[in-house]
Each structure stands twice: as C-alpha cells, then as structure tokens.
C-alpha cells in the first residue's frame, strides 16, 4: 500500500488551510497513495490558543468534518484528518481530535489526544491544558487489512501509549504533529525511529513544518519509517508530501529475524 504524510504550514485562515489540504490530498492520491495523513492543527494555527474554540464542531457534524469526508470519498482513500477541535465536556475547552474517514466517506475512527503538551524554557512556553480537554485511551482501526494505531504529537514521548495498541500488533502507527522547532530539532526523528523499531511496524508522521503567520516555528520532517528504523520518505520544511510503499513483507521479515514482540515479558 502506498501511504503519504502531508506536511503543511497552516495559517490563521481556515479556508486557506482547507484549500491547501485539498490540494495536497489530490496530489498524493493522484500519485497512488491509498492512506493519507494530514498534520495536527491542519485546519488552524491561530494567533491565540483560544482561537480553536471559535471553530470547534460537534462530534460528527460541521464544515471541517464534512470537507474531510468529502475528500476521502472523492479520491477513494483512507484519510487521517490530522486534528481538529471538537466540543468537550468542560466549558471553555475542546478535544484535539484525530478523525479518520474511509474511501466511502464514512468515519471509521476518532482519537482524542491523551497527553497534553507543556513546555517552558524561559523564552517560549506552551500549555495545552489551558484550552484542551484530554482524551482517555488510544484508538486503532482497520484499513485494507492493515491494523493502524493513532497518536498525536506529544503522545510520541510516551512509549506505553504505543504498546497499548500492540495486542495484536499494529502494521502502521500514524502520528499527526505540530512539534515546536526547538523540541523537534532535539527529539522528533529520534522518537519516531524508536517507536518504529520497538514496535516493529511502519510509522507515518505528518507534521507542520515552517514559520507560521502567528510567529510560531514548527520542525516539519514529515516521514515514513520502516520497522527497522529506516526512513523511506521525508519532507524537511515547507509544504509537501512524503510518500512511499508500506511493504508488509518487510514487516514480516523484521519480526521473523528479531522476534522482539514475541519475547515481551512485561
């Protein structure tokens, strides 16, 4: 199966972001991709965290969800819709939700980000918990016979999140993200390759990558990694598509020659 990570440099303008997403989806689908992933916050990189509240949608209904369902149906692909804000139980909060649509345009999965990012190095600081309500559990789904697990950005730092999706083992882990330039430069590639190697499956990471109109800089480097930790395709900075073949024979060979998943004791 051909899979593709779509990299964006999203703006505070939802309509512009949707247009960019549609163009990248069409580009990847025309090149043969069957499963595609948009980045975290593909729909909005606002000037304030609270801007997410203004575009939040009810679960299953809204222009953002309708647009993504339409793209999946139009191109006949599995579309991992990055993330978008959905209404939360707590007032003044939203869920950072990763929804997936099948080739017929029907939604097949929803995962809400469990681990909320906080960072302060004295020059830049973020605290997602000011606006986000955390999700509860990892989510997997089936796509053309593949078992696919979902994670979002900061989840990448919690290996137990990925292990929870490995019974039975996943064939592909998809990680939409908007890593800061600072943390991405230090840890993004390292963490992605570690998750691929320890779980012996492919990892598809779709990222924000560039300097945004709100002044924020994101690391980029959207990529597909194989179960041995080899990078098969990568986009460094700016908009683009990292696309390559997900080879199940490679997965099987890695698990046969080094059966680490079968050796687990804890």
Automatic annotation (TrEMBL):
The keyword Secreted does not apply. Residues 1-248 form the CN hydrolase domain. It comes from the Bacteria. Keywords: Hydrolase. GO terms for molecular function: hydrolase activity, acting on carbon-nitrogen (but not peptide) bonds, in linear amides. The keyword Oxidoreductase does not apply. Pfam families: CN_hydrolase (PF00795). This is Carbon-nitrogen hydrolase family protein. It comes from Ideonella livida.
